[in-house]
Structures are given as structure tokens and as C-alpha cells.
Amino acid sequence: MAGNKIMEKIEEEARQGAAAITAAAKEKADAEASRILSKARSSAEEIRARSLVDAQEAAGRLTLIAELKSRKDSLASQRAVVEEAFEKAADQLAHLPHEQWEKLILQLIVSSDLEGTETLVVPEKDRPAYEGGFLNKINEALKAQGRKGEIVLSPEKAPFADGILLQGKDCDYDGSFATLLADVRSEEEYRVAGILFGAEVK
After folding, report:
1. Are the CB atoms for 179 and 163 separated by under 8 Å?
2. What is the pLDDT of residues 2-24, one digit of tens each?
3. Coil, helix or strand for 147?
4. pLDDT in tens, 107-126
5. Where are the alpha helices (DSSP H) in 95-175?
6. Full-prediction pTM beyond 0.85?
7. Please, what is the end-to-end C-alpha distance for the chain in angstroms?
8. DSSP 150-164
9. CATH architecture of 97-197
């Protein structure tokens, strides 16, 4: 009888011990699960916040890229219009009525720092005009200014389509229309862009 009681007591203590171990294990498991869940929630919140920041930064980059592309396209369009404006100016110079052409050439020569003894090189297509009396008109205008008025026509033809080249003793004067227009463009391009668009083209 006494042996049975001892066995029952041992079994009871074993059951209590097992229950305590089970309870402790469950409590530890619950605590670990709670810690893991809390960490997962925290990580998820960090990921969400980081994703939101990344999305905002990506949207900002896309907006900046779009703005830069729009500006680039706008500037390219403005440059194209300015280019067209100067191309039209070149075309108009190349097709001036004869009277306006003479006036322009005469103005170029008399406003230059010349002695009046230079050699005039002109395009082949313009030679008949000079030989037909325009060269005399130029020399008379120079004499009226107190200069020698002894410019002669070169037998060589100019290496450009329109304008003049004056060859002197010390220096030459390039009065080709292409050079004149290039000089005007370098000085006036930003101003022209300002007139067309209210801003400079860079």
C-alpha cells in the first residue's frame, strides 16, 4: 500500500513538473512569437516608410527629368527658329534688288578704313555690274570723302557667293555676306532670341 502511494506521488510530481515545463515552454513560445510579430510589424513599417520615400524620390527624379527634357525640347525649338531667322536673312541678302545691293556694297566700302587704292575681289556673277559703272561710282564716293578713289578690280574671282573682298597693302577686308552675317549673329543672336521668346537662347 505504501508503495502505491509513493508511486502515485511520484507520478503526480511528474505530471506537475511536466505541466510546469509545458506552461513555461508555452509562455516562452508566446513571448518569442510576440517578439517576432513585433519585429515583423516594425520591419514592415520601416519598409513601407522607406518605400514611400523611395517612391517620392523616384517621382521627384521623373519630374526633374521631364522638366529638363521639356526645357531641352523648348530650347531646341527656339534655336531652330533663330536658325531659320538667320537663314532667311542670308537668303534675303543673296537676293537683294540691284539698287539695294549697290547701296549695301557702297556702304560697306565707304564705311571701311580704306586708303582708296585697294584691289577689289568680287564674285564672278557680280563682275558685269562693277565693269558697267559701279566701280566708278565707288571711286567717286571715296574721292568725295577725301580719299584717293583708285580702287581697281581684281582679275581673280572671289571664293564666296556674295559680297566683296578688299585687298590692301597691310591688311584685307572680308566683306562677304556670309562673314558679315556671322558677325551680326555672334553679336545679335541673344537679342534676337529675346525678341522672339522673351529670353536668351543659351
Report:
1. yes
2. 556 666 666 666 566 656 666 66
3. coil
4. 999 988 888 999 999 999 99
5. 98-110, 127-129, 135-144
6. no
7. 111
8. --EEEEEEPSSSSEE
9. 2-Layer Sandwich (3.30)
